[in-house]
Design brief:
This protein is an alpha/beta fold. The protein has a single domain (5-186), classed as 3-Layer(aba) Sandwich (Rossmann fold), CATH 3.40.50.300. The chain is 46% helix and 21% strand. It has 7 helices and 9 strands, in the order βαβββαββαβαβααβα. It has helices at residues 16-26, 56-64, 83-90, 101-115, 127-137, 142-157, 171-186, and strands at 5-9, 30-32, 36-37, 52-53, 68-74, 77-82, 94-98, 118-123, 164-167. The protein is globular, with a radius of gyration of 16 Å. Bound molecules: adenosine-5'-diphosphate and guanosine-5'-monophosphate. Adenosine-5'-diphosphate is lined by residues 10, 12-18, 133, 136-137, 168, 170-171, 174.
Length: 188
Amino acid sequence: MRNRLYIISGPSGVGKGTLVKLLLKEDEGLALSVSCTTRQPRAGEKDGVDYFFLTKEEFLQRVEADGFLEYDEHFGNYYGTPKSFVREQMKNKSVILEIDVVGALNVRARCGEEFAPVLILVIPPDEKTLISRLKGRASEDENALKERLARAKYELSLKDQYDYVVVNDDLLETAERLKEIIAAEKEK
Ligand code: ADP
Ligand code: 5GP
């Protein structure tokens, strides 16, 4: 048995956050990776819990020092997965990383040899269900919804590059499927 890095990706609203919470609650051998960001903390966010908050200079120094598994820019701020944090966690636990498809493929391309990530794509049963989950979350206006659906189509088009594709229809069944994948990959 060995500790592994599981990367969970999928369209916004598909249920990643909900599934990851369930997995973490039930398995003490799993930890969630904490990313670095240059954006300002929101009310209630804690450094080292929600993100490691860095200045732009600190972030770019880490980029220079090859300190990230992957990084990207969103809405004018940098976000990245810190190598040292993931390495440290993996001494004791398997680590879950929830990042987008591009980030996941970057991890495999840049650090596949050291971290040997298991790539899992969570997809909705169909588009109608994804729309209703996004609407149910009530955080989207019509434009944001359209953008997220276009993005979802792009993410689904890359599914052949994933190790596992899991349809999130029934929540508990999907969580079980993810537990099976995690258990099987630990033995490899
Ligand atoms: P993501 O993290 O992928 O953006 P969330 O975990 O926030 O998605 O889930 C989006 C919404 O869909 C939430 O309201 C969540 O409760 C709901 N949801 C997640 N999985 C399921 C499921 N299998 N069946 C029904 N609703 C679900
Ligand atoms: P927010 O500022 O709302 O917390 O996150 C903005 C975006 O940054 C989200 O789409 C989120 O998935 C993405 N993000 C968060 N952490 C990372 C990371 O470590 N790497 C990459 N590539 N994106 C991230």
